[in-house]
Design goal:
By secondary structure, this protein is of the alpha+beta class. It is built from 5 helices and 6 strands.
Amino acid sequence: MFAVAKTLGMIFEWGSVGGSIRLYTPDRREPLTVAWVFPAHTGWSGLRHLTVGYDEGSAAATPSVRNALAAYVEAASVTPGAIPARARALRAFTFAPDVVRGQQEQLVGLLRGLWSGVQESLQQRRAQGSDDIGNGRQG
């Protein structure tokens, strides 16, 4: 999953307990976190294992990818083994290690689908003549 995220231009950031997969968006210079990885004990905001989704407060600053984020979380919600994250500020789903192993291709597909949705959003912005594409890291 991490290798695919990297090939898509996403970055991996380590924290004090776990890590996050982040996506550059045209709306802001700081990448948006779209997945978290923590050990079995509780990590940031009570997250454990693999959690895919986003923080609603951070996503509010990225309106250009709102539809892509909504589709990403909707797809995560119907992935077998998805457990809603408990943190109120998150629209996210957690997957235990055995589920990650069993659903690895589908979980990787979530990241690919998100990336495709962001690219579509960028193309629409360019077609509309928007020149505020952010940090220039997008394809």
